[in-house]
Amino acid sequence: MNAPTISHISCADCPIRHRAVCARCESDELEALDAIKYYRSYEAGQPIIWSGDVMNFVGSVVSGIATLTQTMEDGRTQMVGLLLPSDFVGRPGRDGAAYNVVATTDVVMCCFRKKPFEDLMASTPHIAHRLLEMTLDELDAAREWMLVLGRKTAREKIASLLTIIARRDASLTPRGAVNEMTFDLPLTREAMADYLGLTLETVSRQMSALKKDGVIALEGKRRVSVPDMGRLFEEAGDDSDGGYMS
Amino acid sequence: MNAPTISHISCADCPIRHRAVCARCESDELEALDAIKYYRSYEAGQPIIWSGDVMNFVGSVVSGIATLTQTMEDGRTQMVGLLLPSDFVGRPGRDGAAYNVVATTDVVMCCFRKKPFEDLMASTPHIAHRLLEMTLDELDAAREWMLVLGRKTAREKIASLLTIIARRDASLTPRGAVNEMTFDLPLTREAMADYLGLTLETVSRQMSALKKDGVIALEGKRRVSVPDMGRLFEEAGDDSDGGYMS
DNA sequence: AACGAACTTTGACGTGGATCAAACGGGACT
DNA sequence: AGTCCCGTTTGATCCACGTCAAAGTTCGTT
After folding, report:
1. pTM, full prediction
2. Which end of chain B lies in a sparser environment, N or C, as judged by fewer CB atoms within 10 Å?
3. Which residues of chain A neighbour B146 with C-beta distances below 8 Å?
4. Per-residue model confidence as pLDDT tens digits over B130-166
5. What architecture does CATH give domain B27-147?
6. Domain residue limits, chain B
């Protein structure tokens, strides 16, 4: 498993402080992006994009958390991606959205109108390359998740999700390689279930089981403490530390 | 769901007749690709790339079928992609392979050494753009498959797989929108199970059930006739015809 | 403080698919 | 023709997770 590349598309003065702006950014690129950007806010629970809609923008999440989901006619839904600050939304060159994007907390997006962005992409190879790297990262993540969905038990699925959230949280506020950590779950039990291909009851039961077994501790419903990250990786069935240690 | 973009990377004289070479190909691009290409053959069952290996090439499948799989320590394996002729393998800019690639039939690949290919990419925006489109297609496919793995029943999973193979087969040998078709299954029951997150016994049982119910007919073990594609799409739980009709 | 709404936990029970096991092709060798 | 090997089918049983139902928790509102 390659460590995800840290690279994203961002205008010059977007308040994304969560990751360093890509070192290869040229100032003229930033200015050009700056000229076509605008901000949009969404409230928790509000849809950002509906599958099939015409999408006339692309953009990055500045703050908050959004989910990418697919739904069947009968209501069964599967989350196919989790969007955290600095994540990119949109598919240059495609007109329609393929998934539902919903804000799970209040969300601020930094948007670029699609046409000018595509023009900029055509004239700025760096941006196209970074976009390719980001898309390859997403593809890796999606395929890793296919293994989780297809072959892991409920307990392993929960542990895998906690691992992913812990890893992303650690990369937002780096503190070196530590063996214990605590973080907030940004998802309801139902959203976790949609991510994992489980029911919310099973998620709840497995969370309780992991707590009983001392793998995690819960403060309230949402705050999770992991006394031993190595133990959590084992529970997830991962053959590595998932790129968390370094 | 967007119809997948038909676009791929191919040298000038590769015998890929299965899809038209991208119309935007400039002849100088083709010549440049031609200069760095070489062919490799693999026998059925032979590994092409092992996860974690250093990959010093990228390339396209010319003939045959290969699978992309991930494996856990204890042997559980999940297929994360199916490579048919004209599909691209490799991740420009990445050194290590993230998955196992195995030839399921005899396979011929048209390879490009990675470094020269990356140089060419840097100097030829068209190639980078096409690669981005292909990666976006793969991402869409992976995410669609996440819904299958996470939320569909065994019977729906089988029907979904048959739908995909029928669709790809139809695009290789176009014959207009027809309601019945027959094709060869390029996979063993075990490979189907690995794709679907099931056991081979369950795959076999569900195939028998679909046969008993008249959704499919089997000639031998591998040849499948579908008297009514619409019926198959319904069985797959798809809200659309999966892009097959046109 | 009392209420209600949304989320979560827990229990009892049913079932779809996994597991274990055995038999059944069909093609490639003697 | 026989037999070996590999893939496939089918059967019997089990269990992880889904389903249905009820109670508990948290938090905002009156």
Report:
1. 0.89
2. C
3. 70, 78, 80, 142, 145-146, 149
4. 888 889 999 999 999 999 999 999 999 999 999 999 9
5. Sandwich (2.60)
6. 27-147, 153-236
